[in-house]
Design brief:
Helix content: over 70%
Radius of gyration: 18 Å
Shape: globular
Largest sheet: none
Number of strands: 0
Strand content: under 5%
Mean pLDDT: 76
Number of helices: 7
Length: about 130
Amino acid sequence: MGAALTNLVQLAYISALEVAVLQVIFDTPLYQSLFGKGKDGEGSRYFSQAEMRPWIAMALGITTAYMFHLTALVGGLGINLDDLLAVSGEAAVHFDRVLTGIAIGGGAKTIKAIAKNFASTRKELQKQLG
């Protein structure tokens, strides 16, 4: 349980850093004119229907997971992906890193939900074990 909690805290820290960095970028006039609501508030001239923030956050999260070799399922939770998935080895590591990157890209909201589920599951396990 200690490794899972440590991994969760690390992911929360990285996610909070990413949220802070991206907020600075998203608030710039350049981003707003190209991808945001624009200066007139009616939308950008390039992406009037699509919201780019989640895609940018997800791309940065996945890149971060690959750069720092972060794996949430294997590294923190100790889940054996060979048993869980039909793939093994390198493909399982890629799956874990992409999933970790998406969780990081989801920001603090995703990490809070994971922490809440982890806490409730831990309490249930403790009740079951006595």
